[in-house]
Amino acid sequence: MVNFDWSSFTLKIAINAKLEDIYKAWTNAEEIEKWFLSNAEFYDENNVLLSKRQSVLKGDQYKWIWYLYDDIELGKITEANGKDFYQFTFAGNCLVEIKLTEEFEYVIVELTQKNIPTDDNSKRNIRLGCHQGWSFYLVNLKSVLEGGLDLRNKDNRFKPMLNN
After folding, report:
1. Is the Cβ–Cβ distance between 139 and 151 less than 8 Å?
2. How is the chain split into domains, by residue range?
3. Yes or no: is domain 19-147 CATH 3.30.530.20?
4. 31: which residues sit within 8 A by CB, 6+ positions away?
5. Rounded Cα–Cα distance for residues 59 and 111 (Å)
6. How far apart are the first and last CA of the chain?
7. Nearest Cα residue to 109 out of 126, 85, 75
């Protein structure tokens, strides 16, 4: 594991959906709740709560809550070009970048999480934990957009599981 990169990772998935729909799935509270979160709130630069159907802009902030977890994630939108690139802070000072590229009838979703601290706790909980979490949620994004099936476990009698 000497050459293992603990400070970043990249995941890719091909989704047969419109690029605009995928971008909206990341940048709109109503849409992100369909595949990723139990509750998403976005706030503008003046700390005014955005409508669930309003897309975020660079400088906006978020408050995210998942099913079956008490954790609340607070962060900031650092880039949002309105089309194919989106970046936000996550897990402290980490950055998550979402790049969308059309290829044939698919959109390639490329997620990179970087600036991960390299202490043992961050290696385990952020580098390995977020890699596992994003892997599932990207598959769930594909499932929801291509077929409408949400794969998340929302039943608190079954936790922890692969799908939560």
Report:
1. yes
2. 19-147
3. yes
4. 24, 25
5. 20
6. 28
7. 85
73 contacts 44 by C-beta, under 8 angstroms: no
- Judged by phi (left if over 0) then psi (alpha if -120 to 50, else beta), residue 61 lies in beta
Cβ-contact 2, 92 below 8 angstroms: no
Per DSSP, the residues of 7-48 read S-EEEEEEE-S-HHHHHHHHHBHHHHTTTT-SEEEEE-TT-P
- Average pLDDT for consecutive 10-residue bins of the chain (164 residues)? 91 98 98 98 97 97 94 97 98 97 98 98 96 97 97 90 84
Distance in angstroms (rounded) separating the CA atoms of residues 120 and 77: 27
- CA trace torsion 102, 79, 86, 19 (10° rounding): -40
d(CA 84, CA 109): 9
Cα 113 from Cα 87, distance rounded (Å): 10
Which structure tokens are listed for 63?
Answer: 């408050």
β-strand 94-103 against 106-114: which pairing, if any? antiparallel
pTM of the model: 0.96
